[in-house]
Amino acid sequence: MDSIDGGLTAKPAWYAKGLRFECTQCGNCCSGGPGAVWFTLAEEEAMAKELELTLEVFHARYTRRIGARYSLKELLRNGAHDCVFLDRDTQPGKAICSIYHARPTQCRTWPWWSEVMESPAAWEDTKQRTPCPGMNKGTLHSLVEITIGLSGGA
Description:
It contains 6 helices and 8 strands; from the N terminus they run E-H-H-E-E-E-E-E-E-H-H-H-E-H. By secondary structure, the protein is an alpha+beta fold. The chain has one domain (19-150). The chain has a two-stranded antiparallel sheet with strand order 1-8. Strands 2-3 form a two-stranded antiparallel ribbon. It has a two-stranded antiparallel ribbon with strand order 4-5.
């Protein structure tokens, strides 16, 4: 039998019943191999304001050009590329973001990134590759919460 909408009914997302995630402040999502943390001009302005810096000083001190875009800088620590704002010293045993309240959307929406949410296999691969001890643990996030994350937190 055909669907009422002529076959246009979308298959439910594999995570339709929600997924568990709770940040453990391990810092693994902010570290690892070389990468990029993209941000908008509005986010750059918010980060500069959080640090009480002019936009020009913030830009010179904390960003780098990758192709036609800018990313936050990384620092090489113990063989890993940490985000310049990853603080491993203030709270021993924890890795925290020193600009948490002004962090870019890319950071705010982890782990609800499209490439992570593509399939159960992509989710599990990310959990192992990152590695992220908070995936599949803690708070059950609803389909709505995940969808908001996938849309950039809007």
